[in-house]
Predict the structure.
Amino acid sequence: MRDNGIDTNEKLFLAARDCHFESAKPRGGWVGGAVERDEKSPTSKGGDSSTALHRSHHPAAPAVSPARNDKNPIPLRDWLPSPTPHNTVMEGSETTFSEQPASDFELAVDSVVSGDITTLARLLRANPELIRERSLRPHRATLLHYIGANGVENDRQKTPANADEVARMLIDAGADVDAEADMYGGGSTTLGLVASSIHPARAGLQSALIETLLDAGAAIDGLPGNWQPIMAAAVHAHSGAVETLARRGARLNVASAAAAGRLDVVAKRVREGGDESPATSGLPKEWKGQMELAFIWACQFGRRSIVEFLIDNGVELNAQDSQGETALHWAAHYGHVEIVRLLVDRKAPLEAKNNYGGTVLGQTTWAAMNDPHENHPRVVEMLLDAGARIDQADYPTGNERVDDVLRCFGAAS
């Protein structure tokens, strides 16, 4: 069911997302709250021209060394089933959390998120049915869902250094790689959670986990009616995840192809005058909106050849996403110097404001404080040289190189 082009589930996720932000909305964009968004977290409102990035900026959990002897691992084939009483809900059960005490399932979850494969192996050996059990919490996650570090308890949103090994252990033990859990309104699979989570990305394991799940048969385009993992990854600006999913054969629309750097697919879609892909969550229904989303993502992901192609094919430089960000906002945010230069030369608007009142310069100085990139000083200089209003900058930013540039142009506290 849709209302003004917005799927009912998408409105639910949008509301849930906004309720979970802990910090104020700055002029330059979002500061993420403690709850990680997943593939069901929409940022494109139906026929809107695009999407927006809502990255969590809470500190990544440190990797926890596994408590195991690497010279003497415990192979799954050597486990001897020894069922013991357990108190977690089984698939299809109506048991509620209040009716049951803590269980082996909870101990197993702790082992998953800490990377303690010795304890995890012992628990699964004693009770193989744990692999099919679910949390009693509202999200009803299985053990494998916790690999996503997304949408579960805050203190369990962690990606240990051996997360890929943990995932393979769970899969070998019989985990259903396409099992759905109820994060963000339901329909969340482990692949979608991993593809949209900041924690495996920061740990440098996001692509490896995606590969492991796909090797085990996970549905690369997600399950019917749910967000496509590559779209979820693009929404959350996880370029490695986008590229991995595209390389492994994810269905590409014009926007996800732009995010993945696939000019060939973008050009084909433009030549055909539309996208024949099935309806996709996060993708505008109208072709104009799809083109604008592709343009914004190409700028955000640093895909210059696609940016040039779309400009040459008539995309509007002043297109804004659902948070009011233009393509120049995102190119500047991520320090893509060559794309910023291209857009400035093509007269992209400098003073367009996002929904939080941030101009391109305001977004860039906010990013210098909250999501710093090496090229921010050069981008700030380019924007000011092009005539951006310095009174729209956050100053001081605490970034010495950025502040030096701002002072040269007359910034005052």
